[in-house]
Design goal:
This protein is mainly beta. It has one domain: Immunoglobulin-like (Sandwich). Helices cover 6% and strands 39% of the residues.
Length: 140
């Protein structure tokens, strides 16, 4: 399979947050790597990414030099708390970013994206290889 998730320096955030959640709180302006599933079908690859709290207009997907990058931003609601205070906040707000090496067998120009219920779905069609036909050459 040539569709490989690129190593992302921002994944270290998940390591620290999952290991010591009471010590490390997400900071404004930090990047998060969204959780993804990658599936290979006969004619395409499918990537689904969780983007909770993100609006469709805040998602940007682009391809450059064989690298597919998805970026998104979830904004925190700015409302005043009149009764009580937040004791623990586990929902993430900020920027999401994830990149994938496409490889030579993906048709970059035909990648399609859709977004529904906080899940981004990308379909990356595989390049259709021409099967060489065997033909007989007459000997004169």
């Amino acid at each position: 399979m040539s569709l490989i998730s690129r190593n992302n320096v921002f994944d270290i955030d998940r390591f620290f947050h999952d290991s010591w959640p009471q010590l490390v709180e997400p900071q404004a302006g930090t990047f998060f790597a969204p959780r993804v599933d990658i599936r290979e079908a006969d004619d395409h690859y499918e990537i689904t990414a969780e983007l909770p709290g993100v609006e469709k207009n805040d998602i940007h997907v682009h391809v450059k030099e064989g690298v597919l990058t998805l970026e998104a931003e979830a904004s925190k609601e700015q409302k005043e708390e009149k009764e009580g205070k937040i004791i623990r906040q586990e929902r993430r707000y900020g920027k999401y970013m994830r990149s994938f090496n496409l490889g030579a067998d993906v048709n970059e120009s035909d990648i399609k994206a859709s977004f529904k219920d906080g899940v981004l779905s990308l379909q990356a069609p595989k390049v259709v290889e021409k099967v060489q036909e065997r033909r007989r050459i007459e000997v004169a």
